[in-house]
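Annual report, structural modelling task.

Input specification for the erythose-4-phosphate complex:
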Amino acid sequence: MGIILKNMPFNHLGREAMKIFLDTADLDEIKLACSWGVIDGVTTNPSLIKKAVMKRGGKVTMEEYIKEILRITPGPVSLEVIGLTAEKMVEQAKMLYRKFSPYGQPVIKIPINPSFGDENNMFDGLKAIRQLSRDGIPVNATLIMSPEQAILAAKAGATYASPFAGRIDDYIREQLGMKRGVHFQKSDYFDFSLIGKLAENNLSRIISSKNADSLSELYTDEEIVSATRLGNDNGIRSGVDLVRSIVKIFRNYGYKTQVIASSIRNARQVREMAEVGADIVTMPLYVLKQMIQHYKTLEGIKAFTADIVPSYAELFGE
Ligand code: E4P
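The model returned the following structure:
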């Protein structure tokens, strides 16, 4: 007998199906997307809040506004703290959780490393995550840019870890001398397999131009070493690769922390995140809209509509 999946949170593999979160603080967007019935949660950050406030001409009563987001959203809503020390973050997280829990499911976003470069507070995010997790407050460890940071977030007990895929793609492209707005747009798909091939060709060209006597001479050659750094970030080849690595590590050790693929820029990236097993993908509204569209679907619906014969239309009373 087949397994009935309807209304079951787990699929036949015993894992929850991938969830879709909306990455916005715009109430109108949240209302609209939730009315489509595919949204499982919302993620916000201070920049997204700023955008939403500006859209309303600065006229937002923040507490009421956030309550409304929580009431509408059928799942977790990530709200970020603004403090940069563990003490402040824990205090703010508790305030947010206490204030907004009656209205929905707040999750507290804590930056994995809140330091501006100062060594003194670079572990404060982790300390806050550990404390809040022990207190039973769900945490979304944010601004994760490497698997190493994700491992620490999981060890500290974060409920969610948010790797910023699009920003890693930006970084890799920028290292190659590509400028956003000039050589690529924010929503452009990052073809990491093409970049990988180009980087490999470049490396082969450099290696073959050398007259080295030994492998160690080639291995330590500065030009070769810097060429190996192109097209990747410390071995991570793209934002999707970052998420793939984190998902693999978490599954290797049974970490319960769920991976929220974040900083998503286009629909193809969503598909690739699903392929690598992200638990959740959080995306802006325009990406959700991209997901539903296909030129052949448009062509098909037009053709089917044009082919409706009167006797078939009569069935529907038309
Ligand atoms: C994640 O939770 C962040 O809000 C978000 O995904 C960042 O995306 P951006 O890089 O497009 O700003």
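The chain has a mean pLDDT of 95.
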